[in-house]
Each structure stands twice: as C-alpha cells, then as structure tokens.
Design goal:
The structure holds two protein chains of two kinds.
Chain A lengths: L2 H20 L3 E2 L5 E2 L12 E6 L3 E7 L4 H9 L5 E8 L12 E10 L3 H15 L13 E4 H9 L9 H10 L10 H13 L9 E7 L14 E9 L2 E8 L4 H18 L21 E7 H8 L15 H14 L1
Parallel strand pairs in A: 1-5, 7-8
Antiparallel strand pairs in A: 2-4, 3-4, 5-6, 6-11, 8-9, 9-10, 10-11
Chain B lengths: L10 E4 L2 E11 L7 E7 L6 E7 L10 E10 L3 E6 L5 E5 L15 E7 L2 E6 L3 E8 L13 E6 L4 E5 L7 E5 L4 E6 L2
The chains are: A alpha+beta, B mainly beta.
C-alpha cells in the first residue's frame, strides 16, 4: 500500500466528479449485488447466497459492470448519467493490471454516438492534466480504425477476410497456430494480440475504432459495413476504456443476449439468473446514446507511474494467492 | 496442460527447447475470451520470446526440481553458488539474469530450478527487505505527484522512495518491479 498514491487517487476521483458535474451528468449509484444479470459469455461472475431464516436461500451475483442498471435508468428518462462503482470479475488474473474487485467509471451520454464520446473522453483527460502530466497521457488522442491498423502493420485487409477460412489463411501466413475450435473472433484476437497491440504507439493515447461485427456485443452495427460503432482506448499500451454507440433495437439486443446465453452455458462455471425481459427496456422511447467504461485503477496506475495495480488500491488481492492455487492444482494432477 | 495454468517461473518446452516464463499476463481483449500473454526466456541463450495464446491452448510443461543454494559471489561473467545439501559449488552464467545482480545478497540462500542437471532459474522472493546504504536528504518536491528521492540499497540498486527514508533504515522492495513498498521498523 502506498499512501502517496492513495492521495493522488482521491484527488483524481474528485476531479472526475467535478468534470461530470460541470457537464451536468447525474451521478448515480446502482446495486453491486444483483438478483439477475445479462449473459456475457466471456465473463465469469461471482455468486453469493442470500439466506433467510424463513424464506430459504437464493443466489445473488456481484456485477461485472453497472451497465444493466444504468441502461434501466436511461429507459426511465435519467438523461446523461455517470457512476464510479466497484465491479467484480472472477477467474481473471490477480496482480499487474487486474484485481477481481476493481473500480469502474461508466458514463452514458444521450443523443450522441461513439465518435462524439471520443471528444468527451479527451475533455475528461484534459481536466486531469497538470504541469507534470506526461505527454503520453495528453489529448488529442491518435485515432485509427481497426482495419487501417491491420493494413498498416501487417498488410491484412479485413474487408477481404470476412470468413473464418480467409482470416485463417492470413493468420497462418503470420506463423500463428490455429486450433480447429477457433472462431473468426479467436483468430482475429490471436493476430491482434500478437502483432497489433504490442506495437501500438505509446507517445499518445490511442483510440482504435470500428471493431469487426463478428465480435458480438451490444454496440450498434455501422450501417453498410462489417464493423460495429465501438472503440477501445489504449494509454501507454494499457487497455483503459471502451465505448459503444449503444444498441437500442430491442430485437437485436434480444438476439445478442440469446446467442451469448447459449455460449455461456457451454463455457462458464457460474450461470447467473438472467433478466429475460431486459430487451423490453429498449422501446421507442429509449434514446440513442453512447456509453464509455473506464478502469479507474488502471487510470490511477498510469497517472502515478505505478507499474502494478497493487500500488494504487488499498488492500489488493495478492498474486501469491494464485501461485498457491497453481501449486495445489499441479500437485493434485 | 492448458496455457491458462501457466504461472511465472515455470519451465515450458517450446519446439524442443526449455523456456522459463518470465512474465505471464492474462488479457481479455475488449470483453473477449481469455488469452495469456507470455514473455519467455531461454536459460541457455538468454533469448527472449513473446507469445500470446488462448488460455485453452495446450502446452508442454517440463519437470524440474529445485534446490536451496547459497549465493557466494559474482565475477564478471557468472554467479557462484553452493548447494546447501552437498556443498558442491557451481556457477550460473549471468547472461539472461541481468536483473538478479542488483537483487541478490551475498550469503543469502536462493532456490535454484534445475532441469536435467542444468540450472534454469534463480528464484528471488517477491518481497525482500534491504538496508538503505546511501541516502541524501530529500528536497521538498511537488506534493501533488508525491515527494520522492532516489536511494541506494545494499545490493547497489537505486530505488525511488518517499523523502522521509534515511540511510541505515530497512525498506521492503517488490523485486519484480524493483519498487519501494514500505519502510520496515525493527
């Protein structure tokens, strides 16, 4: 624990709140203990048990992000909202830039799209800068589409490899080993993580936008293209924030969640109770909006020059826990 | 075994050669499926290899044994150790263990990972207490970014610490990041 960093963290949280208040976003607090979630096939959730002497027991879940509740507020006409909240993801690495319990900033802006949210994020960053802020943190951000960067770094045009077989050919040219079970998304990620992400510029924050629509999520599809209206922000090589133009078509939300649920029951250990009426909040009154989620612990890690998330959170989980898990499991094998 | 079970410090066989896992980070691109990003080092040549694979990919682990050895001294090329059980002395080429020189203390015992009679790795505990051997009085710095200064610890490593740390005091260091953790009162 580093008390100096904790003081800086407190100051940053104050600056973030001041920024959103000045821009007339409403601060909200939604549950972190949820009765139902939406299915997200790649996220393991924590479950816990509510028990009552007279009414038996019921499973509850710690939220992996506040998205579900914040969109319910938007459906009720909240307007622009933001929240700084604890979120929880199970099974992920402990240490470096992960902790099972982490703090997330999430904000939604009405009547704008994902590109407008870049400007808001740049403004937020500016409000956090002072005379000592390193230049790699300062706006304006470098903006590159995923396809531009694939073409520039590895001469692969994703428009020409929209099927699994075509992207597999490109991956094998790069000497990657592809498994039979790999989906288009898996192959894309193998290429991205081995050849793109490690080479991203580190002298400025980088926005990668227009992600392939094969990567299923609740971001709108960009009309007439194979992309989604989504971006990810990398600062000094660290994935810090992601943003969507939120899908507001109830039918499309339902299809996405149904597909995710089917994947989830075959891949996840905990299958949370699902809010099966969730898509109904996206009726004709639901406004067009864009949401951004940003990892506060990673932000503070960057701004304090810490090399690990452990330096910026009080009482972090320890990596020794996971080492102990490993030695126990390898002994029993 | 599955790549997801890889941990730092373990030894893997990659295309027939042993590699040590120097760094292991999980990445979930976007909210995507889980990958593990590895930095591997050949203990024979010091060559560094970077690989990112799915946590479900299969990898080949090699069986290693470890033994407790006392670090005696270093010369320009090697670290010299003594096996605490057999009292045999042996050396490990410094190549590939560049960082160890500023973290190991003469006379301390370390765990050495052996594979087929060859030393693969020298394990330094994650947190170690060292004495500050050189420290100047701090200058009052920018309090927003936190006031700090550089001191030298007994191994010769320079560490950024809060200005209140004095020469002769003992401080705990994170040996992975070589960063100050806290002052140790004893």
């Amino acid at each position: 624990m580093n008390i100096q960093n904790i003081k800086i963290r407190s100051a940053i949280l104050g600056q973030i709140r001041a920024f959103f208040q000045a821009n007339e976003y409403l601060e909200v607090e939604t549950p972190i203990l949820a009765q139902e979630l939406i299915p997200e096939s790649t996220i393991e959730v924590f479950e816990t048990t509510f028990s009552s002497e007279f009414h038996g027991e019921r499973q509850f879940y710690l939220i992996p992000s506040p998205e579900v509740f914040m969109k319910k507020l938007i459906a009720k006409g909240s307007g622009n909202i933001y929240q700084i909240t604890k979120s929880f993801r199970n099974s992920e690495q402990i240490g470096k830039d992960h902790n099972p319990e982490f703090t997330m900033l999430e904000w939604y802006t009405m009547d704008v799209n994902y590109l407008d949210s870049i400007k808001t994020t740049e403004d937020l960053f500016l409000s956090l800068c002072n005379k000592d802020t390193p230049s790699w943190f300062k706006p304006p951000f470098i903006k590159m589409s995923i396809n531009e960067i694939f073409k520039e770094y590895i001469s692969v045009d994703l428009l020409k490899c929209q099927t699994r077989i075509l992207i597999k050919i490109e991956a094998e040219k790069l000497d990657l080993e592809i498994e039979n079970t790999d989906t288009w998304e898996d192959i894309f990620n193998r290429i991205f993580l081995n050849f793109i992400e490690p080479k991203l510029p580190k002298n400025r924050p980088v926005i990668l936008y227009n992600y392939p629509k094969q990567i299923l999520c609740l971001a709108k599809e960009l009309k007439g293209t194979p992309w989604r209206e989504r971006w990810e922000l990398y600062v000094n090589g660290i994935e810090l924030a992601n943003c969507y133009s939120e899908e507001t078509d109830s039918g499309k939300v339902k299809n996405t969640l149904d597909t995710e649920y089917i994947k989830k029951i075959s891949t996840s250990r905990v299958i949370p109770d699902i809010d099966s009426n969730y898509n109904l909040i996206f009726n004709s009154d639901f406004p067009e909006c864009s949401g951004v989620a940003l990892g506060i612990d990673r932000l503070v890690m960057l701004l304090t020059g810490s090399s690990s998330i452990e330096g910026v959170i009080l009482f972090p989980f320890s990596d020794t826990l996971i080492r102990d898990c490993h030695s126990t499991s390898s002994e029993t094998e | 075994m599955k790549a997801g079970a890889i941990y730092k410090g373990m030894a893997l066989l990659i295309k027939g050669s042993p590699f040590l896992v120097v760094e292991r980070d999980f990445v979930n691109p976007g909210k995507g499926s889980a990958f593990v990003r590895l930095k591997l080092k050949s203990p024979e040549t010091g060559r560094v290899l970077k690989e990112t694979m799915k946590t479900q990919d299969n990898i080949e682990e090699i069986n290693v044994e470890d033994k407790e050895c006392q670090y005696l001294y270093s010369d320009e090329e090697s670290f010299h150790f003594m096996d605490n059980e057999t009292y045999d002395q042996f050396e490990i080429p410094m190549e590939g263990f560049a960082d160890h020189k500023l973290l190991m203390r003469d006379g301390d015992t370390y765990k050495i990972i052996m594979w087929e009679e060859k030393p693969l790795d020298i394990i330094i505990p994650f947190k170690v207490v060292y004495e500050v051997t050189e420290a100047f009085d701090g200058v009052k710095g920018d309090t927003v970014q936190g006031a700090s200064k550089l001191v030298t610890i007994e191994t010769g490593l320079e560490v950024k610490v809060p200005i209140f740390i004095k020469q002769g005091e003992r401080i705990m260091i994170n040996t992975e990041t070589k960063e100050y953790i806290e002052r140790v009162n004893s």
